[in-house]
């Protein structure tokens, strides 16, 4: 995880009332971190959502997309202040989001990152801890610690 996120890529209490607002806020943070245009990030995320929801169930969504001019796969994690309808496959509102942005040519790296995030967020006890964490630093520690303990 440490190659995907930094403490700056964590939003501990994202305020948004809709799926579109969540994606706009994630795009804003991702643009700051990657140097990409916020609108380009937002458009890629919206385009991906049109293909089918990235709401994977259990209150989790993994919006993702590919952009030119990225040097590597970037992640942004957000815990929403209040869950929003995200058209998730289980029709439950979403409150944990893990955004992934990959370079246009990053086929395998993009898929590997998606698989890692998906595996990590399948851990129900981790998700409970993430929901209860009180700061971006605590969330970052949980996300990066968890993977280290799984690797051991």
Task: Give the end-to-end Cα distance, rounded to a whole number of Å.
Answer: 14 Å
The CATH architecture name reads 3-Layer(aba) Sandwich
By secondary-structure content and strand pairing, the structural class works out as alpha/beta
CATH topology, which one? Mannitol-specific EII, Chain A
Tell me, what is the CATH class? Alpha Beta
The main β sheet shows up as: 6 strands, mixed
* Helix count, DSSP H or I runs of 4 or more residues: 5
Gist of the model:
With 152 residues, the chain is an alpha/beta fold. It is 46% helix and 23% strand.
Secondary-structure blueprint:
Elements: E1 10-14, H1 19-34, H2 38-51, E2 55-57, E3 60-61, E4 64-67, E5 74-84, E6 94-103, H3 107-121, H4 124-132, H5 136-151
Parallel strand pairs: 1-5, 3-6, 4-6
Antiparallel strand pairs: 2-3, 5-6
Helix pairs in contact: 1-2
What does this structure look like?
The protein is an alpha/beta fold and 152 residues long. 46% of the residues lie in helices and 23% in strands. The chain has a single domain, classed as Mannitol-specific EII, Chain A. It has helices at residues 19-34, 38-51, 107-121, 124-132, 136-151, and strands at residues 10-14, 55-57, 60-61, 64-67, 74-84, 94-103. Strands 1, 2, 3, 4, 5 and 6 form a six-stranded mixed beta sheet that branches. Strand 2 (55-57) and strand 3 form a beta hairpin. The longest helix is centred in the first third of the chain and has 16 residues, at 19-34.
Q: What distinguishing features does this structure have?
A:
152 residues, alpha/beta, Mannitol-specific EII, Chain A, six-stranded mixed sheet, 46% helix, 23% strand
